[in-house]
């Protein structure tokens, strides 16, 4: 890929160091950590969830709420939400306290647009399975075949970012491809009906679509992209983080504990996710085989923040984000 040498974070380079953070969780008393410093104006936290991912499993499994209950914190779950952007709107509008652990790209876009949001922590999960898919028999088998075609993506989100990166890698001008901005619930039927020619999407939607619509990958993030520019993130408002640092720390740690459990109990986690997502046993078994691992990064992790800043710069340079943003200005002070 051209023009990426200065913005080419290595997954292996920081994932190796991330293992320390996960390993340290085993001996950490979450309630003691949350009480290390004062700072809480509410005993209720309103959390968003979707039909996939860690928040779904946390909600369904029930242990997350028990952990926070030890600190006298009650959890209210709001959802389901189709993707990260609407949860950011809910937080900004005051109906929720945390976004649901989604893409950093729409989070940065919302911040640039003026939303008073701050990051509370970050997640990296492997393997990365976001893909651009097209229906079998469509004649679209490689990125170059997208010239003159339409691709469904979520605006300023992981779908749009992956398509931009794929076109750049294969030296296809963006103007030669029609970007169709659709949220996942609308993009799936658009691909099925032929209203769009391809779809850039993450799991489990992309995995379900491959089976239901007889589709195939033309670009797979973990296989075809040499760097990572989009991460998973949690956000709240700056005021909520300022007023409730102890609560934010407690929520962060409860999510870390949930991620640790999922990483160590992949099979059980995927059965929980399937029940709520209502997808086939074949898709579930594919996820079990992936054996996904979740690794967390704190907002004071300078190395990670440096990589995220490179990502933000890359996205701004390619107009996925409308303008540059300084990540360190939008971190919760915990």
Automatic annotation (TrEMBL):
PROSITE patterns: TAT (PS51318). Residues 46-265 form the Solute-binding protein family 3/N-terminal domain. SUPFAM superfamilies: Periplasmic binding protein-like II (SSF53850). InterPro entries: Solute-binding_3/MltF_N (IPR001638), SsuA/THI5 (IPR015168), TAT_signal (IPR006311). Pfam families: NMT1. Belongs to the bacterial solute-binding protein SsuA/TauA family. This is NrtA/SsuA/CpmA family ABC transporter substrate-binding protein. It comes from Bradyrhizobium barranii.
